[in-house]
Amino acid sequence: MQRESAPVKITTRDRILNAAIARFSRHSYEATGLRDIAADVGIDVAYVHRSFGSKERLFAAAVEASLQPERFFAGAKADLATDLTNHVLARDPVRDADEIAPLDIVVHSLSSPEAASVLREVVVRNFITPLANKLEMSSQTPASLIASLLLGVGILRSVLGVAPLCDADRAALQQMLAEQVASLCAAKPQEPQVAAAPASVGVEAEA
Amino acid sequence: MQRESAPVKITTRDRILNAAIARFSRHSYEATGLRDIAADVGIDVAYVHRSFGSKERLFAAAVEASLQPERFFAGAKADLATDLTNHVLARDPVRDADEIAPLDIVVHSLSSPEAASVLREVVVRNFITPLANKLEMSSQTPASLIASLLLGVGILRSVLGVAPLCDADRAALQQMLAEQVASLCAAKPQEPQVAAAPASVGVEAEA
DNA sequence: AGAACAGGTCAACAACTGTTGATATAAGTC
DNA sequence: GACTTATATCAACAGTTGTTGACCTGTTCT
Asked: Are residues B127 and B176 in the same domain?
């Protein structure tokens, strides 16, 4: 036993958590069984359940461990748009199927009452709020729209596997996406906007 | 029995389909049981299964019936951005919880191998491709990004119930979202872009 | 040695899922 | 009346799922 260096003892609990992150990052909350996770670790189902109390608490721990704000907002403010889009586009959904990006767990686990109730809180606390802070904005709406866009791209790319997003040229896609994010980053923190009509926003086909 | 007017006979099959649309538009594919649908119609499980062959085929029929291109692309090209954002923002996710918007089924049913494989094809065929056509674009990438943004907003608003999107002023949100859609509508159909570096897109905090 | 305790296993529970075979009921056709 | 077809039901299957109680096995502390 060394004194100075940390024990770095990898507990079974940690291995369960990592296996859970891997599973929930690839399949939906409902499609991920505790037995699958147990098999990955090589232990009994009962123990993975007991280690975290319930499936939902295990999922909550996995989301919390994946969605750490410092992973997204460590860089300079000027690089934010590029950094964020990189997080979504970094992993090629077909080529790098075995890698795991921090946002994958939100994208894949979605849509079941239990999963949604866990995600609701964490997404706001660990992503939208830090993002709005970084942008020095009082309103969280633009940050929420950025989150929406990134989430949508993540789902269409790596859950649905929509061709135009999977096969598109990476640089061109990155450029187009980053422009949208940057535009939202620069959005005016406009007040409730008392009496301005919804104002149809026209589409100019020729740029 | 009248001659001229159509029989308008509402078959049990139709009632099953409508109940399925309602269920899948509110809960995930996996969380929606055939027994729930059967109970809504007031019949036995066996019959809802037999009427469509399998749960997956019933889901496919429900998606097909919900996601009809003419619902989204009937208006003028100039109103497209406003129309599309209206489809996502029209229904207040908490106040109008009992209404069903055509896009809800895509948003809520997401994320399970079976559901994803059904959605993959239909979303491209019934939304992205018609949208790219309406925009007279050769590339489907901008249309896919629009779909991403709308899907993301839908999920954050009505699945996760993220506060900044639910409570935000409708007009302001509509304005901000429509601007993004319009900007993507006007995207240049740029070629694979041979040798341009990813080009960090800066964020100007002060607009 | 003996007690205490975390780490881990085993078998089983009750509830649920989509699916299927056998069967009834009713209407329309020959 | 007999035969077919669509409509619908019943009961049950086989396979899941998360969860629980009882038990075993080492280690550590006293």
From this structure: yes
**A181 closest CA partner among A139, A131, A133:** A131
Q: Which residues of B touch A167 (CB under 8 A)?
A: none
Instruction: Check whether B92 has a pLDDT greater than 90.
Output: no
What is the rounded average pLDDT of the residues B114-134? 92
Please, are residues A134 and B165 in contact by the beta-carbon 8 Å criterion?
Answer: no
Q: Which domain holds residue A136?
A: 67-185
| Sign of the C-alpha dihedral computed for residues A120, A121, A122 and A124 taken in this order | positive
A58 versus B92: the higher-pLDDT residue is A58
- Residue B110 belongs to some domain of the structure: yes
Q: CA-CA distance, A60 to A191, in Å (whole number)?
A: 35
* Distance of alpha carbon A64 from alpha carbon A59, whole angstroms: 9
Q: Is the CB of B12 under 7 A from strand C?
A: no
Structurally, chain A folds into a number of domains equal to 2
Asked whether residue A35's C-beta has any atom of DNA/RNA strand D within 7 A, the reply is yes
Q: Token pair of A188, please?
A: 């005016």
Mean residue pLDDT of chain B comes to: 86
Cβ atoms B31, A113 nearer than 8 A: yes
Q: In angstroms, what separates the C-alpha of B155 from chain A's closest C-alpha?
A: 8
Instruction: Sort residue A193 into left (φ over 0), alpha (ψ -120 to 50) or beta.
Output: left
pLDDT digits (tens, 9 = 90+) for A56-115: 999 999 999 999 999 999 999 999 999 999 998 988 888 888 888 988 999 888 878 888
Cα gap B61→B9, rounded to integer Å:
19
Instruction: Indicate whether B57 and B79 sit together in one domain.
Output: no
CA dist., res. B89 & res. B158, Å (int): 10
A178 within some domain: yes
3-state secondary structure of A169: coil
